[in-house]
């Protein structure tokens, strides 16, 4: 089974690899920086529409973020 912690780790890794600050990412997503901090800490996960936009902004495959890519099962 895929756990929320795995998804959180994938989101954190993607943000770090992007080189974007949490503030810059928040601005592009249309949320406040505190929301991004919640994602990074694991307090919250993005809503589906926010996750889709996060994938677009960071040029990611949603299957990878959701741990559905081959090898992550």
Task: Write up this protein.
- 10% of the residues are buried.
- By secondary structure, this protein is mostly helical.
- It has five helices and no strands.
- It has one domain: lambda repressor-like DNA-binding domains (434 Repressor (Amino-terminal Domain)).
- It is globular, with a radius of gyration of 11 Å.
Question: Which features characterize this protein?
Answer:
0% strand; 434 Repressor (Amino-terminal Domain); mainly alpha; 73 residues
Which helices and strands appear, and what pairs or packs with what?
Layout: H1 4-18, H2 22-29, H3 33-41, H4 48-58, H5 62-65
Helix pairs in contact: 2-3
Summarize the structure.
This protein has a single domain (4-65), classed as lambda repressor-like DNA-binding domains (434 Repressor (Amino-terminal Domain), Orthogonal Bundle), CATH 1.10.260.
Write down the secondary-structure element order: HHHHH
Instruction: Name the overall outline.
Output: globular
CATH topology: 434 Repressor (Amino-terminal Domain)
- What is the total tally of β strands? 0
Report low-confidence residues grouped into runs of 5 or more.
Answer: none
Structural class: mainly alpha
Tell me the count of domains: 1
Report the sheet with the most strands, covering strand number, pairing sense and barrel closure.
Answer: none
Total count of helical runs of at least 4 residues? 5
CATH superfamily: lambda repressor-like DNA-binding domains
Tell me the CATH architecture.
Answer: Orthogonal Bundle
Instruction: Using the CA coordinates, give the radius of gyration.
Output: 11 Å
**Helix percent band:** 55-70%
CA distance, first residue to last residue: 8 Å
Beta content? under 5%
**Mean pLDDT value:** 91
């Amino acid at each position: 089974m895929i756990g929320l912690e795995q998804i959180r780790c994938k989101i954190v890794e993607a943000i770090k690899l992007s080189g974007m600050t949490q503030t810059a990412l928040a601005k592009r997503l249309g949320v406040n920086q505190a929301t991004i901090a919640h994602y990074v800490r694991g307090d919250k996960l993005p809503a589906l529409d926010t996750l889709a936009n996060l994938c677009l902004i960071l040029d990611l495959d949603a299957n990878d973020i959701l741990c559905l890519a081959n090898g992550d099962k």
